[in-house]
Structure formats: structure tokens, C-alpha cells
Write the C-alpha cells for this entry.
Amino acid sequence: MYTAYKPISKPIQLYKPIYVARESYFSDYMLDASFEKDDEFEFIANADAYSVQDEKELILKHLRTFKTICVKSSLVQEDHKTPLRLGVRDRGIVECCLMKNIRTSYLIRYSSIDEKAYVLSVNQSRDHKDTLPTHYVIRVNKQNNCFYLAHESKLRHYFFPTFRKLVQHPKILEKIQLSRPIARRWITDEDAIWRIDFNELNIEAPAGGFAWWEMKNSPQPVEVNIRKFNTSGEFSLKIDVIKNVRHANLVAFYGLCWDPKANETLIVTEYMSGGDLKTWLEKASSLPTREILNNFCLQISRGMAYLERCNQFHGDLRCKNILVKGELHEALLLKIANYGSAMRNATSNLQRESAPEIFKNQEGTIKSDIWSFAISMTVMWKKGQDAYTGMSFEALKQHMKSNKPYVLMCPPSCPRAYYDNIIQVCLRQQQELRPTFAQLVNVFKRIRDKKAFETADIQSYYNTDLSSAYAPLISVSKRAPPPPPVNALSTKTNTYLYREAPPISPESAPSPTIITEDSSSLYEMVYLPFQQRTQSPQQSTIDTLTNELTDRCFF
């Protein structure tokens, strides 16, 4: 048995001193040191060593130009009413802080991974399908040097010289409900951020499941799960993984709760009203259209591409761990749950969806998830029925250990080209010959756009650039030995390209400031710690392509 999870407590202070200019100042000898009245600055340090004539100077960061300058203290004053909270970039921590405050509370922070962007984070969900706080990207316009909401079509044409004017403008308040920023002196620690008082939960079933989290002035529907782990280290490792993960297609982790009566630790996560995908399919009156099923595959592959990009693998990807939210088939939102399962011993968690290498007691990788995804796709096309029809689990286990290839029958409802060029490709025995999730995102998007389910051209959709500038993967029949790995995605996962792609020219390279049509302008769909953003010049081609194909809401 293990004891309650006790993370190392780290102090968290969202607020960093913000100064505003008392008056405009123009520097004759250094243009970068000039600024206008009411301009906002982040305090960096005192500049006593550089003070002259007994006048104190401050080292400040000009928030409109991102320049660090030395300013006379008489020219600025501290702003105690600022909405800026620049002490924390981490989106997960920010969301937890907001959810512990009143509805429509907000703050403005630095972007998680883009050093030239800010984010307005509001404790208000986008719509009925989601319960997470909403995030709006703020950039600086290069022409007028003012702030604007970059991805809001109805608001992006409004420009503001200061953040305070932005959050007070009637047009902004008409579209975004803002009450007040999180208290300037609100200080907590990492332990408190992820800890939920048991008395705040109104659990409807003793074994867990749906519950109401009685937050500040607004009850929140949540999911409560009781997890069994072999050791406390195993449990804490899972928590350390899932608490830093934020993506639109991954179930969000809210925190931990200690049940004093049952002496158990409860994991509190986002509530998904539709239940798991397998049960949802079984109960559906008919099989969803192939367009809807392809959209399901696209959503799942997006969430997995994010884990792939973070050098993590799921370890238990199946329809039971894919949750559903929404009512209309076309508008269903799918999110992947239990993505910390890989922290457990994979062989002790064998499932019918497990890859052959897992059955052979080998270490699992993201390519093992590719196999599991293929089995899950088969289950989807069979309306929730078992992929291995008529085969017992023991027989399946023996077959997987025998090194004999097993060919799944194509579901009657699945187009043959779809089955041959996607499902079968993901079921290759050699891990290195399976595609990546980033490539699959590209495939499903092309099928959606071209409505091409029954064409052999699907094989060419593995091209890693929509302009077809990249060479396609070799066909299934040409299984040549892969080249040596080039800086694989992780030290434990060897990932190969069949043919090396040419470098991206500056003209054809997609701009990181452009949001694709598949992106949600109100979501920071992909979260990656800022310190992981910098990439080595020797970065492998496969890693580069993965970064490009993952949806670009990076904030």
C-alpha cells in the first residue's frame, strides 16, 4: 500500500511588480530607451550601481517592445491595479489558480512557449462543451506597437497602448466577461494548487464518478476516480506527468483529494458527459457516418500527437479511455483519458489493444500507441465491437508472442483503401515502420478536406507537407531497411524516416503566428513548457515534421 501523494511544495506567486510611466520620455542617445506615458514595465532589478547624482534607477522590461532598459525611478510608479500576473507561465497552474477564484476572474500572463506573446486567461469556459478557463492570445502589432487580441476575428482590429485599457474597453467586455483580476498579493504553493478539499466535493457515488466541485460561487461538474498503484513513487510519477499536460483533446487534471473516510487519494479531472467512446458507440442507434468517424480519428491523433511531441506515450490507448462530450455527432468533442498509465508496468496492464512488443515484455513506446490506435479505429468502425472477433484473450496473447503476423479483417463499413493505407500501416510488426501521430493528423485532415475515403491516394497523404513538397513514405510492399536513427524523439524511442525530407524554405515554412482553420481561437490547444521550446540545430527531420504537423495553438 502507498501513502497519500505529497508533492514537494514550491511557493507560487503570480504577481511581479509592474511599473507605469508617469510621462513620456525620449532618449537622444538610445532610441530603445524611449517610452510613452502610461507604458507598462516589468520590474527586473534595482540599478543602484548605475545611479547618478543620487537618483535611483530601475532595470525594467518594456512590455510593448520587450526591451530591457534602465529607467530613472522618478519617471515611473508602481501600478497596484494592473491585471498583469507575470510570475507564472505554466498554463496548468494558471488554470488551477483561476478555478480557485470567482467566476470571470482573470489575469494576463506571458505565453507558455512564445516569448513574443501574452495571454488573457479568464475563469469562464468557451461553451457548454468545456469546463476549462478560456485563453485569448495577445500580441503586439508591428505597425503601431499596440496590443491586440490576435485570434479573435471580431476584436483583432482594436488596438490598445496598455493592458489596462484593453481589459476596460467596452468592445472587449461585450465579448469577454471580466470581473476582476486575481488578487495581486494572492500567494500559494504548488501543493495547495493541486489539492482539493474533500468537503468541497459532492460525490454522488461511493466508488467515484460524477461529482460537483463546490468552487467559489460556481459549482463545477468534475470526474472523481480512485486509482490503485503499487507504490507511492509510481503514483506520484503519474501525477507529475498529467498535471503539466494541457490540450483540447486530453482530459484536464484538476487536482488531488484525500478521502479521510476511505483513506484513499482521489484524482479529480474534467467531467465528460458522454462517457467512454466504446459505450457511446454501442448505444448509438446507428454507426456514425464515415466523415464523423474520420473526425473522431483526427481528434484522437491530435491529442496523441501532443503527447508524442512531449516525448510521452500513453500505454493504454483504447476506446474505453477515450471520453465523449456533446450531443450532436458532428459536434462531439473527444478527449483522451488516463494518459499517465504508461508510468505503470505495461505487462501488468495488458489489454486486447496492446502492441506485440508489450505482450513480449518489451518497453512500450509511442509506436506501441500507434498499434493500439489502429485496434481502436477498428473498434470504431465496428460500432464498439471487439476487433479480434471470436478470439479469446489467452489465444491472442499466445499469438502475439509467437511473432506470427495477424491480419485483422476489414470491417464491412470501413472503406478498403482507408483500411489498407491507415489501419494496416499502423499494424506493422516492426515499430519503426509505423507512422507517427503527427503524420496521421495530416492524413485525417486531407481525407476530411478531399472527402477521399476510397482512393489509393491515401498513401500519398503521409507526405509531411500539404504542398506535396516532401517525398512520400515508401509503399507497404517496399519494406526497405530503415536508415540509422537521427536524434530520435527520445532516448528510449528510435523513430525513423523512410526518406529524408528536404529543408523548409523561409517562403514555404508556415508562420507560427498563423492559426490554422482547425485551431480554436479561444483555446491554447497545445501546452509545452517554455524552456522546452528551444531546439538544437541538429534536430532530426522527424522531430521537425512533428512540430509542424501538430496544431499550432501554442499558447
Summary: The first strand starts at residue 11 and ends at 13. Confidence is low (pLDDT under 50) at residues 1-5, 464-555. Residues 17-78 form a domain with the SH3 type barrels. fold (CATH 2.30.30.40). Residues 290-309 form the longest helix (20 residues).
